[in-house]
# Entry
Amino acid sequence: MKLSLTNHNFSTLLNFSFINLRRPFCSSSLSLSPPNYLKPKVPIFLRPPIYSTKLSDLKKWHDWAKNVASSIGSTFVKSDNGPDSSLLCRELKWFIEDVVENHHSSLFSQMGLDDDIERVKMRVDLEELYCLWKQRIEERKPFQYIVGCEHWRDLVLSVEEGVLIPRPETEVIVDLVCDVVSKNEDLKRGVWADLGTGSGALAIGIGRVLGNGGKVIASDLSSVAVAVAAYNVERYCLQDKIELREGSWLEPLKGMEGKLAGLVSNPPYIPSKEISGLQAEVGKHEPRVALDGGADGMNALLHLCDGADLMLKSGGFFAFETNGEQQCKELVDYMKSNKSASLCNLEILADFAGIQRFVIGFRL
Ligand SMILES: C[S@@+](CC[C@H](N)C(=O)[O-])C[C@H]1O[C@@H](n2cnc3c(N)ncnc32)[C@H](O)[C@@H]1O
# Structure
């Protein structure tokens, strides 16, 4: 995960077939999602447009929200590399697209004499709109938590506080798995694990590239994450392919020793002392359990090496995301010193920004 939330890929994805991409593929009841005592929030764009407001009142809110966003200037950039006004104004545009039914780009520009009569249907009432935008600006609540979703690969994943917002660089792991299974039918039909699944992003991405018979076990320590991941899995109709389990790292895999075709993880890897310096959207709002990797950030990563050794079958593949070059090197050194009899073909790979980000390899 990168440490900022300012460069997400919302805008590019918004431009093509957006409406269709955002519809759930599966509309079955979500009542069976484990754990059923936690009910994930429905993202705004999926809520029914049950509120009606005068166009002039919506315009008033929009003018206020735009003013507030513009007044930020580069204050957040200077304080912690947060969003500037132009990004906040773009978010405002996306926000309205999510909130207003049948939104069109000339919604406000066409306003005329009928403004006080014309009404628009919305998925959130006007009072909540004021409240949500205040949370975005005053509390620096991430935009994705405000609208309740994030675009990731060709997916629109539900997210809420308590669950990490999936980052674009993690998408590479799905490409890597895609590459591996395209050359190996046995791995394509095997059982994979996504440890620390969060919103279920990797599990869903991988679930969609596996062949018939291929399965993913997606686990997390956080019950909120498990509930949100289950919701996302169900939206993409992958309940038969992805099994959610709650528990710490290898514990939910008991009985699978030597049987996994693949193991992937984007674990918490930020050194503890760096958490306080993170951009407010991240440090104040995203779950610490998803970020904090211990003193040097390596706690979970080292544990996962043992996991790859123990859980993968011969020829099985693993891919781990790290904080960058130094952690990649340390991880590979650890594997070479301690796992040379079991882990092989180790490689360090870069993310989209050219930062050494991933360690991959195979079980001998
Ligand atoms: C960096 S987030 C990654 C989430 C998701 N895989 C993604 O890429 O968006 C790390 C995840 O690991 C989970 N986690 C932290 N400690 C864990 C543990 N001991 N066992 C299992 N999961 C854990 C967190 O709850 C969080 O969801």
Notes: The pocket of S-adenosylmethionine is lined by residues 1, 164, 166, 170, 195-199, 201-202, 220-222, 225, 248-249, 266-268, 289-290 (CB under 6 Å). The radius of gyration is 22 Å. The longest strand covers residues 312-321. Residues 6-33 have pLDDT under 50 and may be disordered.
